[in-house]
Design brief:
six-stranded parallel β-sheet, alpha/beta, 10 helices, ditrans,polycis-polyprenyl diphosphate synthase [(2E,6E)-farnesyl diphosphate specific] activity, Undecaprenyl pyrophosphate synthetase, UPP_synth-like
Length: 260
């Protein structure tokens, strides 16, 4: 627990960081790998590390509020890969799915939420109750009138997404009577992008990964080709506003080259 002096110092530092971002070029789309829930719980002294998933799910609310305050209107969060769902212990996966249903999906579909929900991934690998809760949130926020978009990547694998996009493109072309040679001649990056899970959403400008890991883990492999990457050593439930502002400061200080 912070002392009064620590809280004062923290507040002053956060204000200084915020002031440094005035007039800066900020990302319009941030993607986040929310990593380190279990390690955070063990470090915090909880006997059951799975409780970290609840803290992590609840923390998403706060981070979305920071994004809205800074004018970031598109956020994509990586919840779980297909491998996570298949290879981790059943009780851990079940706990994570309950957190998605009881915390994330339930809060997002409240009338007070400003975020329009989009889903990315293999929803067929999710439990029926989780898939239903997320689809309800997506439907409930479809016409909420707010220009804030949250994409939840769950049951997600970037390589599988690209394969599925090409398969969908070929199937669409076949239904339209186009042969494989014609498709090959006309194939473009934009055509493939139109068949991705995230079709219609802008590519992320900034990707943040918490927990100290320095890898993408298959997250948005196509979309993040020119994104700036920021790796943060804190675990997701401990990701503070100053950590968020530092990531924005780092982004604003870079000169984006887009492959040039």
């Amino acid at each position: 627990m912070r002392t009064s002096l620590q809280r004062t110092v923290y507040t002053i530092y956060a204000r200084r960081l915020r002031a440094q971002l005035t007039g800066a070029d900020l990302p319009r789309h941030i993607a986040i790998v929310m990593d380190g829930n279990r390690r955070w719980a063990r470090q915090a002294g909880f006997e059951d590390a799975r409780i970290g998933h609840r803290y992590g799910a609840e923390h998403l609310d706060e981070v979305l509020r920071w994004c809205a305050e800074m004018g970031v209107r598109h956020v994509t969060v990586f919840v779980a890969s297909v491998d996570n769902l298949r290879k981790r212990a059943a009780d851990e996966v079940g706990n994570l799915m309950r957190m998605m249903e009881e915390v994330v999906a339930e809060r997002l579909r409240k009338p007070t939420s400003i975020w329009q929900v989009h889903l990315a991934g293999r929803l067929d690998v999710l439990p029926d109750s989780t898939r239903h809760a997320l689809k309800l949130a997506e439907e409930a926020t479809r016409d909420n009138g707010a220009d804030f978009h949250l994409t939840i990547a769950i049951g997600y694998d970037g390589r599988e997404e690209i394969v599925n996009a090409i398969r969908s493109l070929l199937e669409t072309a076949a239904r339209a009577g186009h042969g494989i040679d014609d498709v090959a001649q006309r194939l473009s990056a934009d055509q493939i992008a139109a068949h991705l899970y995230t079709s219609g959403q802008p590519d992320p400008d900034l990707v943040i990964r918490t927990s100290g890991e320095r890898r993408m883990s298959g997250f948005l492999l196509w979309q993040a080709a020119y994104s700036e990457l920021h790796f943060c050593d804190v675990y997701w439930p401990g990701f503070r506003k100053v950590d968020f502002l530092r990531a924005l400061r780092s982004y604003a200080a870079r000169h984006r080259r887009f492959g040039a």
